[in-house]
Amino acid sequence: MASRLKNLSKTEGAIPSAKNMKFALVYAEWNSEVTNALKEGAIKTLLKYGAHKKNIFIHAVPGSFELTLGGQYAALYTKADAVICLGCVIQGETRHFDFICDAVSNGITELNIKYNKPFVFGVLTTQNQKQALDRAGGKHGNKGDEAAVTAIKMVHLKNILSKKKK
Ligand code: RBF
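That is the input. Now the predicted structure with riboflavin docked in place:
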């Protein structure tokens, strides 16, 4: 469903308990009004589903381009079961938008496979700041909420499938 029709804070399917899960949250400082709102949404949602505050490791990176390496550091140097990457890339007059979006989406995809661990793509890619704010706690909900629920569901999936194998 196109995000203009979807409220990003509305969840579908059962949401498992996050009580015993650990999360790293890596967010970009570029477009900080938006990314702070994404971060707050993600934290609130993790806590809502039972995560403990001490099990949420929060780190900033300069921009969305740095989310890939920041995410890798979080996987290597924290005990996170999942890494939530939050950023906001707004279309400008140069081709930076395309380069950054391509780099971060490919980078995060690779991290999922490399570490066999969920790295969630919580990056808004919009034409302007209003569209971003609409998706960071505005009329279309909060992508931070969606990213947090995705992390919980993917950790749960890994937990149940890896236990079955044993
Ligand atoms: N980072 C973002 O997270 N969002 C942006 O919208 C964004 N736009 C940028 C536009 C230009 C022209 C440049 C040079 C950088 C931009 N960045 C943006 C920063 C980028 O992700 C990265 O931090 C820097 O390029 C340093 O590697």
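Residues 17-165 form a domain with the Rossmann fold fold (CATH 3.40.50.960).
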